[in-house]
Write the C-alpha cells for this entry.
Amino acid sequence: MRLQLATWQEVEAYLQRSTGIIIPIGSTEQHGPNGLIGTDAICPEAIAWTLGERHDVLIGPTQNLGMAQHHLAFPGSISLRPSTLMAVLKDTVESLARHGFTHVFFLNGHGGNIATVSTAFAEILSERSLSGGSQSGQSKDALQLSLYSWFTGRRGREIAKELYGDAEGGHATPSEVSLSWAAHPEAVKDATMSPHIAPGGSAQCDAVTFRQRFPDGRMGSAPSLACVEHGQRFLEAGVEDVLEAYRAFLQ
Ligand code: NI
C-alpha cells in the first residue's frame, strides 16, 4: 500500500497490523549520457512500489531530493545541503513517530546520501536519548531507523557482476540505468559514449572539480550496456533483497 494513495483511515487500520514503513530516498542528479536525472529516486521507488503491491507493507512518499552537491555543474541536478536533508528527514521521521510508527526503513538509491542520512539518524536518536525518550524502558516503544541501499543487495550485486563485471562502475552504472528504464521504458535513451568504460576516481570534491574529472558524468561505468530486460531482473532481485532486509529489521 502506498501512503500517497491511502486514506487516513487505511493508515490507522494498517497501524493495528504493523508499525513499520518503507520510505524510498534518492536524488535528482545527472546520470551520464543515457541515465535519467531521476535514476536514484526511481530505482528504490520501483522496488518499494512493487514490494508494496505484493506484501502488506506501507510505502511512504519518495524523498526525491538528496545530497548531490558534486553533480551541480551538470544542468538539471538539484541538491539539498546536508543540513537541509537532515532537517527534512528529522521532520519526516518525527511525523511518522507521532502516529505510532516505530520502524522507519529508508530504501536508498544514492551513495552520496549515506553519510548525511546516518548523521540524521544519530541526531534524531540523540534527541530522544538526551530527553529521556522511551521512558518505559521497553525496547518495543523505541524508535528504530534503518538505511538500506538497494544496490548493496546480495541478489542484485550477483546479477551486476554476471552481466557487467568491472563495467558496473560507481555512478551512472548499467544496473541502475537498467532498473530505471524497466520502471520507465518510455524514457529509454540512446547515446554514444567514449570511452566505453568511463574513468574512475573519487567524488569527494566540489561540482567544478567533479565535472573536470568525469566529463560526461559517468564514474567508472559503461551504461551503454543497460537495457530494460536487465532492469526487470534487478527489480525482481531488489524486491527479494529488500523484503529480506526489511523483515530482519522488523524483528
Ligand atoms: Ni545513481
Q: What stands out?
A: The pocket of nickel (II) ion is lined by residues 31, 39-40, 110, 171, 176 (CB under 6 Å). The beta strands are 20-25, 58-59, 103-108, 144-149.
